[in-house]
């Protein structure tokens, strides 16, 4: 399998996930995180929004 790990939030990770998934026959995995903190030191991603992103990736055949 080939995978991507954190450092990027889900919006930034998708294009890299597409590149990996579309150029290999191996399983593709990902482990996104909440991205970088905002100016208040908090994270804008929620568990619910993360679940939606991952669900879309799976539906689109990227995982």
Quick recap:
This protein has 63 residues and is an alpha+beta fold.
Could you explain how this protein is built, in words?
- Belongs to the vitamin-B12 dependent methionine synthase family.
- Pathway: Amino-acid biosynthesis; L-methionine biosynthesis via de novo pathway.
- GO terms for molecular function: metal ion binding; methionine synthase activity.
- By secondary structure, the protein is an alpha+beta fold.
- It has one domain (2-59).
- Helix content is 41%, strand content 13%.
- The chain has helices spanning 10-22, 47-59; strands at residues 2-5, 28-31.
- A two-stranded parallel sheet has the order 1-2.
- Helix 1 (10-22) links the parallel strand 1 (2-5) and strand 2.
- The longest helix has 13 residues, at 10-22.
- It is elongated.
- The model has no long low-confidence stretch (mean pLDDT 88).
Number of domains: 1
With helices defined by DSSP (H or I, 4 residues minimum), what is the helix count?
Answer: 2
Q: What is the succession of H and E elements?
A: EHEH
How many strand elements? 2
Physical arrangement of strands within the biggest beta sheet: 1-2
Largest sheet data = 2 strands, parallel
Low-confidence stretches: none
What is the subunit organization of this protein?
Answer: single chain
Structural class, please? Answer: alpha+beta
User: What portion of residues is helical?
Assistant: 40-55%
What is the average per-residue confidence, as pLDDT, rounded to a whole number? 88
